[in-house]
DNA sequence: GGCCGATGTTAGTGATCGTTAACCTCGGTG
DNA sequence: CACCGAGGTTAACGATCACTAACATCGGCC
């Protein structure tokens, strides 16, 4: 029963769809566009997803789960809060630089996800944010949690902006830059 | 020939359209939606704009011009580079907090603007960025301009993310927070 | 070797889209 | 007071949309 290429097509579609959604927005991409991007034409997509919205939902659930799981692991295996923050930043930066389309779709298209899935995505996102807030709270115990949460969201904006200014700097240099800026921003007194 | 309400409808449409575009994306909003949002229905819009894309173009041109002009003035009337940077940050933050929908549309929908206007918007944006880079270059003379440009783009991502985490903090507190984070991020060595 | 499920195809469905056409109203103005 | 332009209306057009139906292909399994 094991098919060595099982899910290959599905993943291929998701990957192509991420690029298209990031470039033109969910409503700016048609089913035929999606099919054309993977070599099949049009409605072949319905063999893999029940519909366009379900495809987006699968995509956002996957990203959210990966981010949340990765964040949890990195914090758990860090030797201290300062190291945990560094690990979180490096993980998020690697993700943003490695999969810019996914990051873009992730914080733009949540409203187009149908309801039950949207709640799950939001819960995962909230969990990820709280991972960051928990670490920050140890480093800045005097700052109220609401402020820390806002600071984390702003930092995500900083890190996630890289897709829009991509290619101007080599990846390693960009990683350094974002790490320095993110650390400084998060630890700044305000 | 002076009409005391001239342009009122036009501005009303642009304002409502900014909210809708920010919430659902350019392709997710129909002409009928836009009409309904200002009390008229549907095609009345064509009395004020030649089409949907032209409406978006007018909107983005307006924002870009305001940002660029405001930035130029603030830098020109600052007493030094450190004060200029502070003025730029405060101006951008006030804009992002005051018109979150416009800021959102501004960095998401450029690709939907028809070509001649898109070039004009891009030129205005580039001018605005260079205003920031010029100030930063005085404060960090050892850092290559390409890095400064990337840092400025990342900072815009930080400042522009506020629409997505709005309402969690009072405006004055949010201004303080963003100012501190933005300053720290821009002046961080990397 | 006949069947079958997985994965395509093309043609067509009704809904919705941006846009145009044709017509109405009405507050100035010559 | 006739007129006219500004700003609305509804109806309709063709294009495109997400999705469905009906049919084709084919590798693996009894």
Automatic annotation (TrEMBL), chains A, B:
Give start-end ranges for the coiled-coil region(s).
none
- Which superkingdom heads the taxonomic lineage of this protein's source? Bacteria
Membrane-spanning intervals of the chain:
none
> Per the record's keyword annotation, is DNA-binding included, yes or no?
yes
Q: Where is the HTH tetR-type domain?
A: 7-67
Q: Which Pfam families match?
A: TetR_C_24 (PF17932), TetR_N (PF00440)
Q: Determine if DNA-binding is one of this entry's keywords.
A: yes
Descriptive protein name: TetR/AcrR family transcriptional regulator
Source species, please?
A: Nocardiopsis rhodophaea
């Amino acid at each position: 029963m094991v098919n060595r290429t099982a899910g290959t097509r599905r993943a291929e579609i998701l990957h192509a769809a991420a690029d298209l959604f990031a470039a033109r927005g969910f409503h700016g991409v048609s089913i035929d566009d999606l099919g054309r991007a993977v070599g099949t034409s049009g409605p072949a997509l319905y063999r893999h997803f029940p519909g366009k919205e379900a495809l987006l939902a699968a995509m956002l659930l996957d990203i959210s789960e990966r981010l949340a799981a990765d964040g949890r692991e990195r914090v758990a295996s860090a030797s201290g809060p300062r190291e945990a923050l560094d690990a979180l930043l490096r993980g998020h930066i690697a993700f943003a630089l490695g999969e810019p389309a996914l990051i873009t779709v992730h914080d733009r298209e949540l409203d187009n996800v149908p309801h039950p899935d949207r709640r799950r995505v939001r819960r995962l996102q909230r969990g990820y944010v709280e991972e960051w807030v928990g670490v920050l709270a140890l480093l800045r115990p005097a700052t109220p949690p609401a402020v820390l949460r806002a600071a984390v969201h702003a930092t995500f904006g900083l890190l996630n902006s890289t897709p829009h200014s991509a290619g101007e700097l080599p990846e390693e240099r960009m990683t350094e830059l974002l790490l320095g800026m993110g650390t400084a921003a998060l630890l700044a007194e305000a």
